[in-house]
Amino acid sequence: MDIQIIDNDNIFNYRVASIIRNGNKILVQKDSRVSYYALPGGRCKIGESSIVAIIREFKEETGIDVSFKKEIGILENFFTSSFNNKNYHEILIIHELEFDNKDIYNREIISNIEEKHKNQLSYVWLDINELQNENFKPKIIIDLLNKNDFFHYVNVD
User: Fold this and answer.
1) CATH superfamily, domain at 4-156
2) pLDDT, tens digit, for every residue of 13-26?
3) Half-sphere exposure (CA, 13 Å, Cβ side) for 24?
4) Is the pTM of this model over 0.70?
5) By CB neighbour count within 10 A (0-12 exposed, 13-18 middle, 19+ buried), where does 18 fall?
6) 26-39 pLDDT, tens digit each
7) How far is Cα 65 from Cα 54, in angstroms, rounded to an integer?
């Protein structure tokens, strides 16, 4: 069971996300149902650690095996979703991962259909320095990634 609490127009999520680096670039996800890029990830399940959850989510969404590299940070995120117009209180734990198969770093685009929601997920490499010019959410992650230190930040969008 995913860790999510729904109370009328308010939703609490415990989520995980991944950073996979390829030189100056990071792998970002584009869901066909929205207009922005985000870090690949998903919800933790009850009794599941954030590391196990992000490895599982990445495998479920891409079919690709990854390994944990290091912790990146924690983002307490408060926002109204453009997808469903609900208010979110989200705890997002971000981990750096790496591909088990190094040939995958040479792929430009990774694509998959997420069966659960019947939506198209695409993954592309975007230059970290150019993310500011892209529709990327949450934007604050760009600044936090450039610091190269573990972070804990509260973001209100």
Assistant:
1) Nucleoside Triphosphate Pyrophosphohydrolase (3.90.79.10)
2) 999 999 999 999 99
3) 5
4) yes
5) buried
6) 999 998 888 899 99
7) 11
